[in-house]
Write a structure and sequence with these properties.
The complex is a heterotrimer of chains A (186), B (311) and C (618). Chain A is an alpha/beta fold and 186 residues long. Chain A has a single domain (6-170), classed as Rossmann fold (3-Layer(aba) Sandwich). Chain A is 38% helix and 10% strand. Chain A contains eight helices and five strands; from the N terminus they run H-H-E-H-E-E-H-E-H-E-H-H-H. Chain A has helices spanning 6-11, 13-20, 36-40, 71-83, 96-99, 130-145, 151-157, 159-170; strands at residues 23-25, 52-54, 62-66, 89-93, 121-123. In chain A, the strands form two sheets. A three-stranded parallel beta sheet of chain A has the order 3-4-5. In chain B, helix 3 (59-78) packs antiparallel against helix 5 and helix 6 packs antiparallel against helix 8 (172-186). The longest helix of chain B is centred in the middle third of the chain and has 32 residues, at 116-147. Chain B is globular and about 55 Å long. Chain C has 618 residues and is mainly alpha-helical. Among the domains of chain C are: 333-522, no CATH class; 553-587; 590-618. Chain C has helices at residues 2-23, 25-44, 70-93, 100-118, 123-141, 147-177, 182-189, 194-212, 220-227, 230-255, 258-262, 271-291, 296-315, 320-350, 368-382, 388-402, 406-431, 447-465, 468-480, 502-522, 554-560, 567-587, 594-615; strands at 51-59, 62-68, 488-489, 492-495, 498-501, 527-528. The longest helix of chain C is centred in the first third of the chain and has 31 residues, at 147-177. The chains are: A alpha/beta (186), B mainly alpha (311), C mainly alpha (618). At the B-C interface, strand 1, helix 3, helix 4, helix 5 and helix 6 of B face helix 15, helix 16, helix 17, strand 5 and helix 20 of C. Strand 1 of chain B pairs parallel with strand 6 of chain C, so a sheet runs across the interface.
Amino acid sequence: MDRNQIGKWFKNPSKMANKYSLHAIYFCTGCGIIEIPPSITTRWDAERFGIIPVATPRQANLFMITGYVSTKTLKAIIRTYEQMPEPKYTVAFGSCPINGGMYYDSYNTIKCLDKFIPVDGYIAGCMPRPEAVFIGVTHLWKLIDMDKANGYKKYRENYPFYRANQEQLFGDLDWPPLFPKENTNG
Amino acid sequence: MYFLHLFILALLALFSGIILVGISRKISARIHWRYGPPLLQPLIDVIKLFSQNSISHGFFFDFGIILTLVGSFILIFFIPVSNLYVMNSGGLIAVIYIMLLSPFGLAISAAAGANPNASIGITRKFLLSFAYEIPLLLILLSVMTHYNTISLVKIVDMQVDSGWSFGSGTLILSGISYLLILPAILGIRPFEVVNASQEISSGPLTEFGGKHLAFASIQHSLHTYAVLALFVDLFLGGSSLFGLLKPISSTIWGSLIGILVFLVKVAVLMIFCLFINAVFPRYRIDQAMKYIWKWPLLTAFVGLLIVSLLN
Amino acid sequence: MNLILILIISFGGAILTYLAGKISSKLRDILAVIISSGLFFYISSLFGTHFETKLWLNFLGFPLLLRLNQLAWIFTLVISLIGALAVIFSLSYIRGKEKTDYYYLMILTVNAAMMAIVLAGDLITFFIFWEIMSWTTFLMICYKKGPALKAGMKYIVMSIFGSMAMLIGILTIYTAFDTVVISELITKFASASPGFTLFTMIMFFIGFGVKNAIVPFHTWLPYAHAEAPSPFSSILSGVLIKIGVYGFILVLYVMVGVYKSLQLSSWLTGIKYTLSIIAAFTIVIPTLIAILQDDAKKLLAWSTIGQAGYIFLGLAFGTSLGLAGGMLHFFNHAFFKALLFLVVGAVEFRTNGIRDLNSLGGLSKKMPFTFIAALIGVAGLIGIPITNGFVSKWLIYKTLIIEHSPFLAFAALFGTWGTILYCYKFLHSIFLGQLPEKLKSVKRSPVNMRIPFFVLSVGIILFGILPGIPLRVINEIIVSTGLERLNISLWGLVSDTGILNTLNIFIAIVITGLIASFIFKLARRSRYVDQDDNYAAGAYVPKDKYNFSVDFYAPFYRMFENYLKDFFDILYDKIARTTEYLCDNIRKIYNGYVGNYVMYILIFLGILVFVQLKWSVF
């Protein structure tokens, strides 16, 4: 943890601040949310890393997808993700977001979350213990340092791809496109 | 000279505000047997918030939040620290009215976001303010009547000569009442009904992100500092150290030591409030109003009665 | 001659406008605007002059006098200004409704009558024009049919009660001193006995108290203001109430004199204490009742009652600071209350008559200019430091603290916090929050409505930054009543217990605001979203259901609803109903049987015979 190195703060303050002040939106998506309250309370104190839960997506910059994603929850997840301000980071827990995991043959779960919203990293475990969550957070810091945690930039640049996937699943969506299409020639 | 005072006061307020909020998170954590964030974590939060691209709901959304910060800054300029003060016109009455500017700005901004959670939060904020203003007004009036002036600078000067107000027999009841409602004015538990209410998803701050939330956080730290500084000026003698500093009070060293003494008093008061904050849950808004209107109101009323009868 | 000219222009202009309306409506509009604005400019040119003229008519042998001095000048100025702005506002408000000529006739006559009252030089002129103002106001309140008729009835009954009390006072003065001219009465009152002075003052206070809506007599005000057409409500709240203040100052300060009235009785029941306690009740209770209101105009009407209490609190003490505070608050309150009522009028006009706070919302996106005007008006009403409301309230608090009455200062400051609660409710429920679907097609205010908004807002901010402009005139008035002069400058006040420098505060707020906006602009740009892109826990935002305006201060209502009923209104209603019941029962002796009537005559003759036999009266 390089929070105490003042030189780095002066070189790139926004990157350092984004690393050490990750406000996680307190949105309980799946079964893994049971591991979050222990992480943020006294025993495995997440506040010393700068992570606190906030109530609304407008104030958050970390989105934790804790476990499987059902089709119904995916609508709320997409809306919440779009309401977060940039730069924002998404971390997924377990194997269900990667390939469906335990629910690979269910009609109701999403098999590959990365098609609908960009995910920056995955934490192994079903469900990962708080220690694993913290190791995942340190890996996220490393990615932010190397400028590789750019899921939000991928969302902005490839928005038609994500929007097409979402519309294929849900049909017509209630909300307008986040990044309106510019008319290209042809 | 004027601008030097302004600069030093503004810097002092920002710095101590952030350290006070940092102290509150650290001490709450330590009481809970955990480590807690570093002392400068609020500063890190503000830097992160300024680097976010957030949303806005229109002109009045932006205007309100700027008004909130302006209100808190102007309040800072009215509160003297050792012998630094920028504005004295209007005295304590102007302070009472400037304290209205911040909630008003926040109310316009939050409600322009068209979210009912924000509107409910603002309703609770105004009702809580209405509740604690009643004993607070009685306390301020008893101080003004006791010293027969409305100028805050004069009140601090008189305490250098005649001792702390808290220690004088006539104003002790007002001081105790002020201590009882201090958590309500600061907005910490058990009166944390306005912000960060998980019931109404952080109340007025619901639609704030990025720079709006940064302004609101800065305002929160300035407000904490201003409320504690007002108490120290009115009841704990400002920056006087039992009259020991009188011989060197007009030199640079005197001012610096005065500022240090002032900050120590503010920190002690904050830690006292934090001990209450760390162990209490929240009151509902009507429970909060009923609590404030029972013993604190009675004590403040009796305090004013005593002061007006003795004068 | 100048004053007679004013009367001729104002009254004659009213009748001329009515006749012009029969010819063409455009001519009538132009004539109304020209007359009212012309009067305003003419009166503002009469600054600093003193006149006393006699009308050529005599009334029952009394000569009718008019006079102009500083006190009358400031009142006439405010009356003509608010009148002119209300007429400009009515141009589009009343177009297309029925009886528009009648409307213009009435509104111009009310303005004319108010100006004549203030310019009156003797009490008979005063009373004549007082009565003209009362019944023209009654006719204006009843302009729209329906509940307005009941409201007008309440108003006129209470107003007649007050006028009769005032008539008794005038007649007692005439029989005692044999003159009704005000300038002569000043010298005659100096030699009157305290009991006599107290009696006339009480009679006059009842008369002025009804018009000014002090607490026992305030029950007509909420109904009348709510049901009258909005431009007239602004005149009612802005100036008509203050005619009571004018009369009060006339009796207390001018005729009887400050020093004499302060020595009237022992300290516990003196004028200072009774009046200030009544004023304190008038501040606290109507302000709290205003928080409970759901109708925008009723809320503003209760607020007017509360602010009138502030004026009386300032006037009750008889010091120069107090008189300055009271008069400045009268001047300022006309500005912001008229502005707020005109804002409600604009909203009513554009939304086809909705003024119920529970159905409105989010109009700041559709009517931004109106919202800014409402914001400035509300800021003035609360007393935020760069508006003129702050200066007048500061003067009143200063008076209270210097006079060692901190409990009254507490009541006044408590009133400010109640004001914030209902002002924010007013602002939020009309302009902020979610815009309902049915109001999505609301257009902006028309140009002629924006002119009064602009003039009044500029007035509020200008007199907040440079309060010396009205305070200079008020200083002259204070000196003319015999109190000591205040030490004022263009931007502030210096006295030995504290200074006020509004220019400093204004500069500080502006500079800090500029620095804060600069930092705001420097930060990352925000994306503008509309109201549907809102936090709803991941769900869609329901249209029309995401607005919080019903039960706005629910905890407050639950705690205080049972204690904050208008007990005087219930009392007067009960009295009225009991009287009606009694009179109804007395009527039953006329039951139509001739035999019964013969019996009544015989019984009465029998009583007469008995009395004659027993006591030989005849």
